[in-house]
Amino acid sequence: MAGGRRITLAVDIGGTFTDLEFRDSLSGETHSLKSPTTPDDPARGLTEAVALAGERFGFAPGDVSLILHGTTIATNAILTRDLPKGALVTTAGFEDVLEIGRHARTDIYALRGPDRTVLIPRRRRFGAPGRIDARGNEVRPLDPPALAGVVEAVAATDVEAVAICLLNAFANPAHEIAIRDALAARLPGLAISCSHEVSPEIREFERTATTALNALLVPVIARYATTLRARLAEAGIGAPVLLIQSNGGAISLDAAARLPVRLLLSGPSGGVLAAQALARRLGIPDVAGVDMGGTSYDVAVVAGGECGVVAQGEIDGLPVRAPMVEMITIGAGGGSVAHLDATGRLMVGPRSAGAMPGPVCYRRGGEEPTVTDVNLILGRLDGARFLGGRFALDREAARAALEARIARPLGLDLDRAAAGVLAVVNAKLAASIKTALFARGLDPRDFALMSFGGAGGLHACEVAEELGVRRVIFPRDPSTFSAHGILSSDIRHDLSRAGIMRPEEASLPALAAMATELQEAGEALLEADGIDPGRRRMSFSADIRYRGQAFELMTDFPEGPLSATTLSELRERFEAQHRRRFSFDDPAEAVEIVTLRLTATGLLGEEGAAAPAYAASEAAEPGSRPVHVDGAWTEVPVIRQLSLAPGALVEGPAVVEQDYTTMLIPGGWSLTMKETGDMIAEKRA
Amino acid sequence: MTRPDPILLEIVAAALVSAAEEMSVTVWRTSRSTTVRELLDYSTAVFDGEGRNVAQAARMPVHLNSMELCLRHIAAHHIPLAEWREGDVIVTNDPYCGGQHLPDFIAFKPVFHGGRRIGITCVLIHHVDVGGGAAGGYNAHAVEVFQEGLRLPPVRIVRAGEMQEDLFATILQNVREPETFRGDFLSQVAALDVGARAMRRLADRYGAETLGAVGAALLDHAEAAMRGAISALPDGTYHAEDFVDGDGLEPGAKRIAVALTVSGDEIALDFAGTSPQARGPINATLATTTSAVYYAVIAACGVTATVNSGCYRPIRVTAPEGCLVNAAFPAPVSMRMLPGHKIATAVLRAFAEILPERIPASYYGTTFNHAVNIRHADGRRQVYFDAELGGWGAHPERDGPNGLAAGFHNGQNTPVEMIEALFPLRFTRYGLIPGSGGAGRMRGGLGIVREWEFLAESGLLNTSFDVFDKAPYGLAGGAPGRCGALSVTRDGVTTPLAAKTIGYPLRPGDIVRMETPGGGGHGDPALRDEAARAADRADGYVVD
Fold it and tell me: Which of A569, B43, B50, B124 has a CB 3.0–4.6 Å from the CB of A558, allowing a cystine?
């Protein structure tokens, strides 16, 4: 034992790297580490990373007290269709709802039918008798012989998973429960997901799709949990593991194996949580957090210190009805390809060279110039020091590709072509931020930009300039920022019950009954997680709309017991929110609650020593290189980030580097190192 | 004007699209009606100073491709561009002044910079009501446009920044839901302004001259792309036809005939031989027709990256005055989507001869709008409005998708659970219709069946359906898709109803069943792959 350490680990397993960030709650110190992902067995990469960190920073496997784990296993299983065979049971007459969906199309000029995601084919979709109406009354009973027929039909398909989604089951789940019990009795070991448990909300297609996704993921996550437990045991790590959900909160392995759909799209949530936490810590409440990687650019808005949470996301064209951190994603990143269209216009992205073949300069067979190639050509990236110097980049190959494919056909010299590609991509990044803010009625000039992800630092200041933003925040460790966010997660269970009702005194008994039911369920879940009553937090919200609207806003309930007063305050909050988002409200119109929600939080953060202050850890080694910035080649100082002491000031133009990322500070900007190790660049007036 | 630098071109082009998007977001954020907010029945676009459409926010092809025609009509016949002043907003909904049907209000605002007109912004919104003989503007009994609602010629509703309140009050007095109309209309005006501000910012930053040069270059690029695609087609004249079932007032189908002539890098479409205009409201003005043609030609040529009015330059559309697709005043036009869909399928069918490897068989071919005026036992009234669609036509390389929006429109369905929570209806079936897709080497997509029980005291059913008689065509030996149908079952007796049913009285316990058409098949059914056949049988997409 390395002497009584108590380590909380955050692990973020991405496509290329497994990022690790840990905190010792006794000393308060935090460290991070990157190691390669092992795609054949990601759990092995995880334990290897932990062992490596233990060696480097001096702790033993037994010192680890908690592992918080961000994973893309569920997302990847859907995207690659690496899923078990499943069946679907619906109300008879509605077997095709999963296939028809909401039936709008995205490409309005296409004549060839689009690829449509149908997770469970028609031959394995079975209609059950019985009918529940919109109020939850049984209109037609579930006839036993017919039920037996459905059970035998499912048995004959030899499936691993079954989803059950009946009409109006959110109002009365009795029939779903009866079918579930009959299936479980006949087919022990079958993974069964019921819509009233996975997503008890109105709108049959969204609920069916979410339930089907969940059912097919149950065996996937169960297998991963088994492997992970075995690998951890082999490595001598006995700490509990919590997985990160798309709402940014953590959930136990067992709970995740029951509701794996909650893990979908959780990837970027760590970064957004970290952005929210850092924004609060720096006292800058309005921040646009941007995460630029190889293929995508994620934009999340933190307004008034809060990131938005929405009730629904999307994967592969299918709705995922689970609370998730709000963000928009565009296809632009370091791997975005610059090319000319049929009429000779310059396009950058959305096509990406990805990791394979990757940019031309990687020398893995890529032939089309990418944003990364252009950054290399313009001296913004240092080909010799990429990834800490472990991966040399071929600048000449990048130049040749840009010359042949872009510069010559457009009649531009190489520098102008390269700067042009950057200008086009920066304009595109700026437009996506502007759209994200504009859609919420916000003005970019009131915001600071926070840049993280490996590729963002080279673009952030120029994108800010394009938007009229005068301040850019660079977190201390932008490339493991997401793992950093995960480290501050709490356990979070989102529960909901649908039922259309008015927020009026007459609805109080029904609302109170729903609230009690949710609260009891929430307490039971946190009890099972081993959370002390004193560390539980319950907060209610509701999806509300004006009568006749077909979409809702998620509004937080006021604190305190339910009463006529809290209901009228709820309505006021809804109307204020409606004004902010849609510029009007309508006090004369009736308001409806569609769904009641409870967030049950179990606080994890241990009281421990405060983090030691940041201090420079590398010697200053003055250097410079020619960089094309502000329209010309300039000999620009190159500064190692970790050589900057708190309070240090860097005047642009300059390049600030660390192993996994590079920041470009253009002329007219100056960068300050903060006490926390984070940096803020500001445009001089 | 010199050609702009290729980098600047892309940056300003993106900013122009972003201006149209900002306008679109503004409408979404600030409008009131569900038509606008949830069905997204609106479009926004940006024009250059000469009135040429340079950028669009992608929404509805039916809208976008008609805005420039409307603008040209206004400038030529009503208010010359030289008389458009700073701060003016010009609006019309008149199908006989460049519009399509009365619910669509098209509003324009000139943008000035340094005293010079540098652009025009445009917002089209489908408003919830325009007065007239039926709520919502679809008066199936109308035989003149006067019975369809309030008609506004091109007028300055805002003059030099001042809303013309007398005129606005006159409009509001003539519509059924004045508050909603007012909210949507103000949002339309606000969005025009958002676009105008964005254009002025661009002129400040890059100069009005550059902005103009970029606009011109964008049009030239789109035109070049279109001409390039047309040049690749063999010269010649190709004929095709398709049909609208009828107007519900008089018997007999209406024929849409098109002659498509490719000559070099230009294309001409002539509709001589089309039936005379109908008595009922299934007529199209030339604006609707041209818009449907633009959709079909752009889709067939596969030029979709940057759609702007440069794409229209090599396309010429002509039709005899007074025919179904060039209706003469005062013909009623509220159901202009019916001929609109069939103009598109007729033009695509003509293309099938030239581009057999690209063109699919016919899709379901209409918008299945229906409504029930409901009366509850306690006297309360409610209007239930909905729309449905059917299956795609098979493509030479793949089966048509089942139950998915296609062609000249786009649309989302309403969840059954939401309908049941709000209206006295209980659904008994919502699904695909086995066997409704046309057989072929590639199978047509399946149509949709909607079936519900009526639970209230009484109701009146209205439908504006089509494609009950004239089936969606197959191609290259593929079979046509199955037609649509409508029926009511009362006390165990099923009665078929007409496609255009007006005010059919419903009683509690009635079961209403609507079936939409499947798409046509493509290629000889005997050549269908054995595995695909087996899959069709296993999934029950076909009936034995």
Answer: A569
What is the chain B residue with the closest CA to A122? B539
Mutate to test the interface with B, among A168, A343, A405, A586 (most CBs of B within 10 A): A343
> Is residue B381 packed enough to be buried (19+ CB in 10 Å), middle (13-18) or exposed (0-12)?
exposed
Question: Regarding predicted confidence, which is higher, A525 or B29?
Answer: A525
Give the percent of chain A with pLDDT over 90.
Answer: 66
What is the structure's pLDDT at A205? 97
**Inter-chain touch A203–B305, beta carbons under 8 Å:** no
Query: pLDDT tens, A126-148?
Result: 999 999 999 999 999 999 999 99
Residue A185: strand, helix, or coil: helix
In chain B, what residues touch A121 (CB-CB under 8 Å)? 538-539
Tokens standing for B522?
């493509």
Q: Which residue of chain A comes nearest to B295, CA vs CA?
A: A109
CB contact under 8 Å between A167 and B448, yes or no, is no
pLDDT of residue A341: 87
Contact B360 A204 (CB under 8 A): no
CA nearest neighbour of A418 among A408, A407, A427, A429: A407
If phi over 0 gives left and psi between -120 and 50 gives alpha, with beta otherwise, what is residue B325?
A: alpha
Residue A294 CA from chain centroid, whole number = 16
List of residues 6+ apart from B126 with CB closer than 8 A: B35, B36, B41, B42, B103, B104
Mark yes or no for CB contact A168/B22 under 8 Å: no
Closest CA to A265 of A224, A305, A301, A296: A296
Q: Length of chain A, please?
A: 685
Question: Whats the size of chain B, residue-wise?
Answer: 544
> CA A316, CA A351: separation in Å to the nearest integer?
17
Q: Cβ distance A456 to A473 under 8 Å?
A: no
CA angle A435, A441, A442 (to 5 degrees): 75
Q: Which residues of A touch B358 (CB under 8 A)?
A: 111
- The pair of structure tokens assigned to A588 is 């004369």
Instruction: Please give, rounded to a whole number of angstroms, the shortest distance from the CA of A440 to a CA of chain B.
Output: 8
A189, B408 Cβ separation under 8 angstroms: no
From B17's Cα to the closest Cα of chain A, the distance in A is: 10
Residue A607 — pLDDT band, cuts 50, 70, 90? low
Q: Which helix (H) or strand (E) holds A588?
A: none
How many other C-beta atoms are found inside a 10 Å radius of the C-beta of residue A551?
Answer: 12
Q: What digits encode the pLDDT tens for the residues B449-466?
A: 999 999 999 999 989 899
Distance from CA of B361 to the nearest CA of A (A): 10
Instruction: Give B306's contacts in chain A (Cβ within 8 Å).
Output: 345
Q: What pLDDT, on the 0 to 100 scale, is given for residue A2?
A: 43
Q: What is the pLDDT of residues B478-496, one digit of tens each?
A: 999 999 999 999 999 999 9
Q: Could you identify the residue written with the tokens 């239930």?
A: B384
- Which tops the pLDDT comparison, A121 or A305? A121
Give the best-scoring range by mean pLDDT among A10-14, B29-33, B118-122: B118-122
Which domains are assigned to chain A?
2-71 (3.30.420.40), 79-222 (no CATH), 267-489+622-642 (3.30.420), 491-602 (3.30.1490)
**Interface predicted TM-score of the whole assembly (ipTM), two decimals:** 0.93
* Burial (0-12, 13-18, 19+ Cβ within 10 Å), B435: middle
Judge if pTM exceeds 0.90.
yes
Q: How far apart are CA A655 and CA A381, in angstroms?
A: 9
- Residues in chain B within 8 Å Cβ distance of A442: none
CB B445 within 8 A of CB B399: yes
In the A/B pair of chains, how many CB contacts fall below 8 A?
190
The alpha carbons of chain B give a radius of gyration, in whole angstroms, of 24
Q: Give the closest residue to B106 by CA, choosing from B189, B226, B199, B183.
A: B189
A85: closest CA of chain B, how far (Å):
15
